[in-house]
Amino acid sequence: MARKPYVKAKAIQGRGYLKSVTTDGPHVEWLGMPEYYIHTLVIEEQEYAYFSADKELEFEVGAYVCFRCRESKKGFYIEKRSLGVAIDPAEYMRQLELGGG
To answer: For every one of its 101 residues, what pLDDT tens digit does the chain have, with 9 covering 90 and above?
Structure first.
């Protein structure tokens, strides 16, 4: 009997304003594993978990961020290296004009 292949859940793309950040850690699950921190981010009234080796995030509260996330039994978590500042093209061009002029 053939088994169905494992289908990985599709990543959900999201963006919004970062409302708050709480950091928990450092955590070590097994001997030799590097320490990691769990950042709980509130973006547009939804909580997301983000796992990182850094104690501090490089984003300030109020920043407009974009990310890819997945849903698990414990809630939503943001994929590693997918969290970044969202850039509005119109705002970017306006800043270039002001800086260059």
So the answer is: 677 787 777 888 999 999 999 999 888 888 888 889 999 999 999 999 999 988 988 888 998 999 999 998 889 999 988 999 988 888 788 888 887 54
- Assigned token pair, 93: 């061009």
Per the confidence metrics, is the pTM higher than 0.85? no
Contact predicate 43/17, CB 8 Å: yes
Domains of the chain in sequence order: 12-100 (2.40.50)
Q: Are strands 46-52 and 75-78 parallel, antiparallel or unpaired?
A: parallel
Q: Coil, helix or strand for 90? A: helix
